[in-house]
Amino acid sequence: KMTQQMRDLQLGQARKPPGPSSPNAAKRLYRNLSGKFRVNYTSFDEGSLVGRSEKEKLRKSYLIQSNAALFEAVELQDLDRVQELLKQYSPEELDLNTPNSEGLLPLDIAIMTNNAPIAKALLQAGAKESPHFVSLESRSLHLSTLVREAEQRVNELTAQVVNEAPNTDCSEKEKQLKAWEWRYRLYKRMKAGFEHARVPDAPTNVHLSVASSSSVHVTFWEPLSVNSAVVTKYKVEWSCSPTFSPPLGEAVIDKLKNLHFTIRGLVSGTAYYVQVSAYNMKGWGPPQSSVPPFAIPSNWREYDGRAPRRRGQAEALDQLLSQVKTVHQHCVCHEPCKNQPQSRKHSVSKSLKHLFHPGSKFLKTLKRGLYLTAVFYKDDNILVTHEDQIPVVEIDDTYSCLLMQDFLWFTKVSCMWEEILWLRQCVTVSQSSCSCILQTRFKMLMATSQMQGLLGIQDLGQVFFEPIKDKQGNILIVTLKEVKTNQTFESVRWVPICKLQTSRKSVSSPEEPTALDTLLITVQDKLAYHRRSSHALSPGLYLGYLKLCSAVDQIRVLVPERLPNILCHVKIRSNPNISREEWEWLQKRVSMDEPVPTEPEADTSQNHLFQELQVAIKELMALVNIPLQEAKDFRLYSQEVLDFGGQVSFLLLLPPSDDVCTAPGQNNPYTPRSGFLTLPLQIFELGKKR
């Protein structure tokens, strides 16, 4: 109703000067008539639009309307409308931080009417308080003036309505009177809200932690009190003195989506005290000291001066591979390759049209042997040949059993798809030894080259962690690759997976499916595994559970199905850094022959780590279905903290030494029942490198 009144007022203004017929109309009228309260406000000057394009005029009018709509929504305390406008327009388009003619911003109105939900929505969008309220006195005076002027206007309009005879002008003035009465009540409510407000209480749960050798991290929550005004910013202060005299620095946080701050550029080994205080329209509240009261920037490596394990390893391996390639470039086995035409070389940009060429060498059926299949998928679609067949090529038709070492060797080849031709040439040299192993691996490389050539792409993706076998003697090695680009390929057919599964005519019985039928039946599970194996952990410190089991030809590691590229784990905290003091405390616990820390200490960072470990161990034991009382025999790995990229780190929890790796036939009391799988150790290591 009020919005319709505003539209009626706009139409009336084109005919003659009106009075305010709605709160928003009254606000616009007040902007035009009350020059006393103009604060850096540039009014709409029609003359300034002369010579501007019509497009600019429309845009200016459009943005003014959106700004007016936001003010109206805040004044009417319409949270849904405020959120809608903040989502629809940018802060710049809404003119979010430009004061209106009354010197007010949307955030000022929200906090002085103590509307916390709207105020928080505006704060998260980047809203600020009016910069013109430099003191409590200036804000109080400004509100008193607004109330007095609105009251005066209400009295004037009341007298005019009472004294004039009923006519059209009187009806318009009655609308203006109602609007000004509403605005008068709004200003009085804002003034009362300001007068009854008090400074905020101190923030709660101020926690300090060591982030690195040169930084500390502080997190905190809002004050508990709900009676004070809305908090609009926080101040973090730090000093080397517990009295904060002299202070070393401070930072004001006005982006309140995440209440945390990292203090950087500190001196390693120096204690820093931190406190946090909150601010509202009445000023700064009392500071709250952190827990623990101070932190010393450091890293666990400083305990014994240990250098990072992987420092320079990647560069050294690249250099070694380059040297090996240089030596093999002059090998006689490369001479035939130099004379090959350019068209024989593989190219990533080559079309996939060979998939549907009648002369392609993809197989339709398996005939007792070793095969390679490449599963390319995009969303819920899978790439197939012109015969609706997943691409399959033969590796060896006389190979009745796949040695695990050959399979694990092939998984390493998957890290060098672009080097297949070079590897094939190198293996050719060694065939004179007539080694069965080398012949098998050479055939694997030949099949890979054939698959790359037929598909027209080098990267075949990730090797699934186990081959598919059937009772007919077929062995199928599966590679998986997700196609994420929107690139279209010539003559390529993407088929929905469900359609392929239902339309394929099986040539085997349900009791004894072929390897290809098994692949189609389980393809969704394999794609889910592939997607999950590429997920990354969020930054933080984790507690991992290391459990191995051995067989004759391999060692397997226990991993969760939901994240198979990571050990079974739970998150200890969001800060991945272990300080020197925390690591020293852990070393002492180990030297005291305590498998898991069991003694609380003083209110220090070490005690916080102890409490976090207690919670994490209980959660981890529940996750892997191991009774908590058996944790007394477990140990924390104390040789190092496993560091993955600086943002993720792990502490390891180990079973008793005799049970870390279960031998074949040995009773395994520490293996969970469901939700986990065991991967070959080499597969797990490759997953960590991807």
* Shape descriptor: extended
Termini separation: 61 Å
Taken together, the total number of domains comes to 4
CATH topology of the largest domain: Nucleoside Triphosphate Pyrophosphohydrolase
- Count of distinct strands: 24
Number of separate helices = 19
Computed CA radius of gyration, to the nearest angstrom: 36 Å
Level-1 CATH class name of the largest domain: Alpha Beta
Uncertain ranges: 1-51, 332-351
Structural class: alpha+beta
Mean pLDDT across every amino acid position: 80
Helical percentage: 25-40%
User: Into which percentage range does the β-strand content fall?
Assistant: 15-25%
Protein name: ANKF1 protein
InterPro entries: ANKFN1, Ankyrin_rpt-contain_sf, FN3_dom, FN3_sf, Ig-like_fold
Organism: Nothoprocta pentlandii
Domain Fibronectin type-III: 202-299
Quick summary:
The chain has four domains: 64-196, Alpha Horseshoe (Serine Threonine Protein Phosphatase 5, Tetratricopeptide repeat), CATH 1.25.40; 207-298, Immunoglobulin-like, CATH 2.60.40.10; 369-532, Nucleoside Triphosphate Pyrophosphohydrolase (Alpha-Beta Complex); 540-592 and 605-688, Nucleoside Triphosphate Pyrophosphohydrolase.
